Amino acid sequence: MEEGAELVVEARAPGKVILSGEHAVVHGTAAVAAALGLYSTARIRHRPLSPGTEEFLVLELPQLNVHVTWSLKMIEEILDPPSLQYPNPLVVKECSDSDMTRLGSFVVKQLSWGAPKGTVAAVTTFLFLYTSILGLQPITVRVTSDLPVGAGLGSSAAYCVCLAAALLDLAATFDSPTQAITTPKEQGSQKLADTGNWHDVDEKNLELVNKWAFEGERIIHGRPSGIDNTVSSYGYVVRFKQGELMRLHSPMPLRMLLTNTNVGRNTKALVAGVGERALRHPAAMAAIFKAIDGIAEEVVSILLSPSNPGLDSDDEHEHKDEARSWQQLPDECLPKSDIASVVRTKEEAKLEELVEMNQGLLQCIGVSHVSIEAICQITAAFKLQSKLTGAGGGGCVLTLLPKQMSSTYVEVVKVDLEGQGFSCFEAAIGGHGVQVRQELNPDGGDE
Ligand SMILES: Nc1ncnc2c1ncn2[C@@H]1O[C@H](COP(=O)(O)OP(=O)(O)OP(=O)(O)O)[C@@H](O)[C@H]1O
Ligand SMILES: C[C@@](O)(CCO)CC(=O)[O-]
Ligand SMILES: [Mg+2]
């Protein structure tokens, strides 16, 4: 690397929706999840300083209001773990209980008094990944996200995946400038200001990113199944069971509306609560987990079913005309029953029924919430099925939308939901996983 030049590495990782199987998956059953077209991005700037100059680590997490600067000397003195001298990005290690306590108490002292637990966990996770993968290097790290934090869309996994990928990419570049974790021929000094230039991470390194991210998730979550970091790393639609990933190349396009209850919750507490209920009622809870497993496996077979018909072009035409004629009518003339009678394919109807059953079982295990139930009721009036997605307890709810349903109809449903104070959005489902890009600023890249 040229002297004085600044290297900028960025990695972005998607959030996710769980179609079926959350919570039960922690207890070993199957679940189905898809990547969401909303990303968390870690941006790392590294500029080697001249010898004798004091070096710093800067961490910026604007969504949590974290802006901290540490001198590397201070980190070395206070933390003093051997891994600081010998970081090994290729050997994934757990954050031991003693490391967790040591890092956690350092972080609590560094943050302003009374910082929320989520902030302590995010900074602790960062320090663990940074010291283990990179060791003491003077860098400035900033993580931003399109995802709502703590709302069931996998923000914690996307945070861990983008950090792990960016740190690994930088570590590989230090090791050998042509060995970054994307394919070497794709590397170059592209300008990050462009909207593009993102490169997929190659298969071998995806596994490494995913494993480090899982260790990060363990700090934030306590007992993650690994589904969230896996779908954020690999992207697309996946079936996940007991740590095993199966990529689903489904011919069935998934369409859904996401609604944020705007009720805050935390995955760690919800997962722990389900674990405690399972200890109190082992037989009943095992039966519920088994039922959820059956639902998830049926979702998989529907998604993979070759009989999944696409919309044929005549149907689409008819449907657009219908939508246009509705657009000319005032809202109060749109009877719910007309929206309810939108045609479903056989597969869509089955999926809807499974969503309804899954939500009922999630309520049984204690992770629903009045706000979630309210959304389910509002959408049921349009004969649309909804379920919580992610850890529940608040957060986001997904509503399946039949392919034949016009956007005008979707707007009508949104009006009812938003009228009750919820926030709705549609996002691309089943897109790519983690991606990386680099830029070298020869002039030092002052920002
Ligand atoms: N952009 C971010 N910046 C800093 N920390 C983040 C960011 N996104 C997530 N986190 C960390 O993840 C925590 C939220 O994780 P949590 O697992 O509770 O919710 P989630 O991942 O959004 O939902 P789910 O696990 O149900 O999909 C935050 O409190 C914080 O510690
Ligand atoms: C609730 C949970 O099943 C999904 C959270 O998105 C937890 C996990 O699988 O790690
Ligand atoms: Mg999470």
Distance between the termini: 20 Å
Total number of beta strands: 13
CATH second-level architecture of the largest domain: 2-Layer Sandwich
Radius of gyration: 23 Å
What's the SSE pattern? EEEEHHHHEHEHHEEEHHHHHHEEHEE
Strand coverage percent: 15-25%
Instruction: Count every helix, treating DSSP H or I runs of 4 or more residues as helices.
Output: 14
Helix content: 40-55%
Structural class: alpha+beta
The fold-level CATH name of the largest domain is Ribosomal Protein S5, domain 2
Bound molecules: adenosine-5'-triphosphate, (R)-mevalonate, magnesium ion
Overall number of structural domains:
2
Shape: globular
pLDDT average, as an integer? 88
CATH class label of the largest domain: Alpha Beta
* Sequence stretches where pLDDT stays below 50 over 5 or more residues: 183-194, 310-331
The biggest beta sheet is recorded as: 9 strands, mixed
